[in-house]
Write a structure and sequence with these properties.
With 195 residues, this protein is an alpha+beta fold. It has five helices and nine strands.
Length: 195
């Protein structure tokens, strides 16, 4: 997505949606018809509640543990350049969905959900990078602090393939769909592969 300002229409996607909606109005469609057609045109960009319901993940609680953060991967950058980088949080996702709010005690008995399988070497990564470009992208009304817990020993070597807080549901659905319930083992220190 290209961006050129922080205004509402300062990026390709919102400009495209606005242009499509306006074009339908210019074709003499009613407001409701223009809205329905625009939504249909851009439905692949809208979260699918039905898909979440079909997978059994809709309305469930997910346990996430923040294990670190960094905004400076590039030591050669100036402070001004670094300030423009997103905040990067390193998280673990636990391999269980909860019907009720989990507790800090639940952390002790649940394995971690793999976040990525690298195709070059077949290793899996447990850590997930989540990038935050704007504070408004952080879904704070949907996140609850349960307490501090030790970082599990299966903390993999970091691999930068970020997810984004404004699309956290998409990232979690990918992880649960592809890796949920799969067993893995440590083949070298902090290196994991599926059994």
């Amino acid at each position: 997505m290209g961006t050129w300002s922080s205004s509402l229409y300062g990026n390709d996607t919102t400009s495209d949606v606005k242009d499509a909606y306006t074009a339908y109005l210019l074709e003499q469609l009613s407001n409701q018809e223009a809205l329905e057609r625009t939504i249909k045109d851009f439905e692949d960009l809208i979260g699918d509640e039905e898909e979440s319901k079909e997978t059994g993940r809709y309305g469930k609680y997910v346990l996430i543990q923040k294990t670190g953060a960094s905004a400076n991967f590039y030591s050669w950058m100036t402070e001004e350049e670094i300030a423009k980088l997103p905040v990067i949080m390193i998280i673990h996702v636990f391999d269980k969905l909860f019907d009720e709010m989990p507790t800090i005690e639940d952390v002790k008995n649940i394995g971690l959900l793999p976040a990525l399988k690298t195709f070059e070497d077949g290793d899996i990564r447990i850590n997930k990078y989540m990038e935050l470009y704007k504070k408004s992208h952080y879904p704070k009304k949907h996140l609850f602090f349960l307490g501090n817990a030790p970082v599990p020993k299966n903390n993999s070597i970091p691999y930068h393939n970020p997810g984004y807080w404004n699309r956290v549901e998409e990232s979690l659905n990918f992880c649960f769909s592809n890796f949920g319930g799969k067993e893995y083992e440590e083949v070298e220190e902090r290196i994991y592969r599926f059994r």
